[in-house]
Each structure stands twice: as structure tokens, then as C-alpha cells.
Amino acid sequence: MTPAAHISAAIEVIADISARRRPATDALKDWGLSHRFAGSKDRAAIASLVYDTLRRKASSAWLMGNEEPRSLVLGMLKLQKNLDVAAIDDHFSGARFAPEPLSAEERENLAKDGLKGAPLHVAGDFPEWIEASLVRIFGDEVEAEMQALTHRAPLDLRVNTLKANRDDVNAALAHLALEPTSHSPVGLRAIPAENRRGPAVQSEPEYIKGEIEIQDEGSQLAALLSAVHAGEQVVDLCAGGGGKTLALAAQMNNGGQIYASDSDQRRLAPIHARLERAGVRNVQVRTPRGGADAVTDLDGKIDCVLVDAPCTGTGTWRRNPDAKWRLRPGSLSVRVNDQAVVLDRAAQLVKPEGRIVYITCSVLPEENDESVAAFLERSPEFKSVPAGEVLERALLSRLEPVFRKTEHGLQMSPLKTGTDGFYVSVLERRAKK
Ligand SMILES: C[S@@+](CC[C@H](N)C(=O)[O-])C[C@H]1O[C@@H](n2cnc3c(N)ncnc32)[C@H](O)[C@@H]1O
């Protein structure tokens, strides 16, 4: 397929997503099934155009004056790919499989001076209703922060220090041209290539042997900020597929004890094979049976409860750009309620002077500082640990300048830390009087 044919296909897929309000992954899969002649490189190029279009949906619509799929793709080619009118013209030739030639109006819109005069939610490409929340966290950096969240995300790996070290793994994977991550001491990063799929890491021997995991650097840092160490009793209360559990086990060098649980039995299922592959021996998986709480026997005994909370995932919009246009106020309030439930449960598990490490992959203050503030109001026996001390305990004080500090925690973002938008707050139970 030619680049112009890729653009035609992307317009078709965007039309399907808009008309049927369906996730981009489903629309792309269907397109692939009904166009079996397209090879994997073609499908990757089309997916890349579709995701870039979703990243810049609001600004493209503003530039082109409407939300038609063709307009959205045209706007993206200018705003995200920096193509000028002549370069776009070449693709829109009207030849077989290429899109129809540009109209005079399209040409005029594409020649405009970018986003000059656009409102904030357009310039930052986010739903207007979250603007006030974003201003609360980012102040006058909303536009820069949200624009950084429209870029493609890199692929990050965490080196499993139970089995390997970063230099050796990097040398073995030299053909992938990875770079050590800037902040996590155990991360390696692959920069995304334009219009291509990322490296097939899962087929590398190092992956198969459990020496590496795929994990965003922000998630690695969130686990490190828990400052768990060998000898501690730890509960990973929202363990899901175990991404953080594996990182904690490596930090504890297989010492102490981690209990991994989750209210959703199905989400926990993959953890067993992952623990095995990573050579983890200090994790007991506590599977809830018939919805029953699987950690009641641990109440009041735990040094550190990790709450990798259910959240809206706004901090991962680089990876799931269509999720941002589907976010609704109702789903945010459902998540805030879930967070209250899980924080209250975590509090029962923590022993005096123990801690809850509360994590989200969101940049919205409602589910970060404000969820924490509401918890502290309900549970005066807890206090939030100042950011400087959290970093010091995790031996990460050198990172103090890169994090955005909030009232109760630390906020990461593509702009500030070059990671997904993770939030971490450490909540310590006061000593018994
Ligand atoms: C962000 S995901 C966890 C991701 C996982 N920790 C990882 O690193 O791969 C949030 C998890 O919280 C779980 N969850 C939601 N409400 C919960 C509750 N009340 N108690 C325990 N787990 C809960 C969800 O099932 C989901 O698996």
C-alpha cells in the first residue's frame, strides 16, 4: 500500500470510530479483517495515523472548521506530522486508493497559522469539562503539559534485578538501540519509530527468561517510591496482572513477604505465570473467592499497603488517545468512589507507623490529592509524608527537581518526568499513643 492509501484507510477507520462510537482497537481490527491484503507494516502505519488523529482531534477539528473524519486526518497531518500544504497535496491526489484532491476551503484552512487564538482545551487537545481540574494541577502550564500528553509514548522496559543488571541487558539487546531511562535506575527505553510498530520485545530471549518486563518508567518510579525493602510485610491490594508486584519483589530482593490481591479474580490470573518467569519467590497470591476479601487475616499487621488504585487513566492518554474523548464526569465520580473504598480497606491492614502508598495513573486532582485529602479527613490516624521525605526514603532525592509536588504527593507527567502521568502519595499511620 502507498502512504496515500494508508491515509485513505485511516479516514475510513476514523469514520467507523465516530459513527459507531467504538474503541479504536476494535475498528482497526475490523478494518484488518476486511482488508486481508494489507500486511503488518501497512496495518501498523494505518494504526499510527489513526492514533495520531485521535491525539489531535480537538485541534484538528478547530483548524479545519468541522469534525468530519477527512478533516480530522488533514488537521493531524499538519499539526502532528508538520506537513505543509504541498506535501499534503501530494497524498491527496485523487489517484486510485488515494484520497480525493483538496478543496479550496481545505487548502485555506491548512494554510492558516496553526492554533493561533485557539481556546485552551483545543490547544491542549483535551475535553473542555476537565479544564478547571487541569488548571488546579498544572496552573499556567496546562497547554504545555497537555500537548506533551498528545505525543507518542516510548516503550519502556524494567530490568528484573533478581535475574540481570541493566548494562548486561542493554548490551544483549544492542540491536534494539535502547537507552537507559533518565530517572529509573532499572529502566531501558526504546524511542518510538515513526509509523512503525515498536520492537518485538516479547520474542527476545531476555524477555522469555524473565530478565525484562514491559513497564513505563513512571510505573517503575511509583514502585520505587514505596521504598519497600527486604524484611517488610507488604500487601499489593490492587495487584491486577502484577506489574507493580514484580517490581516490588525485585526491590525486596525476594526477601520479606508480599501478599498480592485484587477484588477481581480474573485480573489476577496472569500474575502466576509472570511471577514464575521473573523468578519471584516472596509473593503469596491471595485470590478472592466468591467476592470474599482474601486478606482479612492480615489486618493491622502490614508495613506497606500498595494501592495502585482504579482510576480514569488520564495519565496514559499517550497510549490510549481515544480514551480521552470517551471520559465522562460520571466515570470520574465512579472512580473517586472506588478509591475511597480501597483506601479505607488499606487503612485496616496497616500497622502503627506503617504506610499506604497510593498510586494512580491520572493527572486529575479529584482522584489524586483530593481523594487523599478526603481519606485523611475520614482517617485522622494517618498523615501524608512530605514529598522530600518520600524521595529521601526511596534514595531518590536527586529527583526532587523533576517531580511536580502537590499538597499530598508527587505528580509525574510526560512534560516533567518524560513518563506517563503517575501520581504517588505516601500515607503513614501515626504511632500508637
Ligand atoms: C490500576 S489497576 C492495577 C494494575 C496493577 N497493579 C499493575 O501494576 O499491573 C487497578 C486494579 O484495582 C482493582 N480494584 C478495584 N477496586 C478494588 C478494591 N476495592 N479492592 C481491591 N482491588 C480493587 C481492579 O480490579 C484493578 O485490577
Automatic annotation (TrEMBL):
Its name, as the record gives it, is RsmB/NOP family class I SAM-dependent RNA methyltransferase
EC number annotated for this UniProt entry: 2.1.1.-
What region holds the SAM-dependent MTase RsmB/NOP-type domain? 145-430
What Pfam families does this protein's entry cite? Methyltr_RsmB-F, RsmF-B_ferredox
Q: Which family does it belong to?
A: Belongs to the class I-like SAM-binding methyltransferase superfamily. RsmB/NOP family.
Keyword RNA-binding attached: yes
Q: Which SUPFAM superfamilies match?
A: S-adenosyl-L-methionine-dependent methyltransferases
**Residues at the catalytic site:** C361
The record's PROSITE patterns line, in alphabetical order, gives: SAM_MT_RSMB_NOP (PS51686)
| Binding annotation for S-adenosyl-L-methionine | D262, D308
